[in-house]
Amino acid sequence: MNPDTYKGIFGGQNCRDSPIQPIRNDCNCSCAKKSEECSAADKYIEQLEQLLMYSMPQKKVAAMFLESIQGVGGVVQFPKTYVSKAAKLIRQNGGLIVSDEVQTGFGRTGDNMWNFMDHGIVPDIVTMAKSIGS
């Protein structure tokens, strides 16, 4: 599943937990009331673990491509800790992390030059096509 904090099965009105999230009065996220971290990221990570365990031969993967903000998917951000946890899991299973910065690179998303920096990871490969031409 796409870890979508807006329309995903663990997102939406019940659990919106992204790096830059407007405060909503109608959010019914019970886990956010208990701590700073929402359980949506862990639920999506659990799905990724199950995919690796039951659908991947020998639990090995070549790479995971991460578009740090899902531009084509509707400009959706991942849950706060999803990218760092997914990167760790993929690397434990022999995979590389490829950060797609075509739409988000070169400072387009705020303070950092690369949006993967907002997630606290260092990818193995960074892609940047049209963004290099500004």
Word description of this protein:
- With 134 residues, this protein is an alpha/beta fold.
- The protein has a single domain (12-133), classed as Type I PLP-dependent aspartate aminotransferase-like (Major domain) (Aspartate Aminotransferase, domain 2).
- Helix content is 24%, strand content 13%.
- It contains three helices and five strands, in the order ααβββαββ.
- The protein has helices spanning 30-34, 40-55, 82-92, and strands spanning 63-67, 69-70, 76-77, 96-100, 125-127.
- The strands form two sheets. It has a three-stranded parallel beta sheet.
Which features would summarize this protein structure in a list?
134 residues; 3 helices; alpha/beta; Aspartate Aminotransferase, domain 2; two-stranded antiparallel ribbon; globular; 3-stranded parallel β-sheet
Brief summary:
It is built from 3 helices and 5 strands. By secondary structure, the protein is α/β, with parallel strands linked by helices. It has a 3-stranded parallel beta sheet with strand order 1-4-5. The chain has a two-stranded antiparallel ribbon with strand order 2-3.
Furnish the topology, listing elements before pairings:
Layout: H1 30-34, H2 40-55, E1 63-67, E2 69-70, E3 76-77, H3 82-92, E4 96-100, E5 125-127
Parallel strand pairs: 1-4, 4-5
Antiparallel strand pairs: 2-3
> Which consecutive residue ranges, at least 5 long each, have pLDDT under 50?
none
Order of helices and strands: HHEEEHEE
Number of helices: 3
Number of DSSP E strands: 5
Distance separating the two termini? 31 Å
Q: Report the CATH topology name.
A: Aspartate Aminotransferase, domain 2
Arrangement of strands in the largest sheet: 1-4-5
Shape: globular
pLDDT averaged residue by residue: 78
Strand content: 5-15%
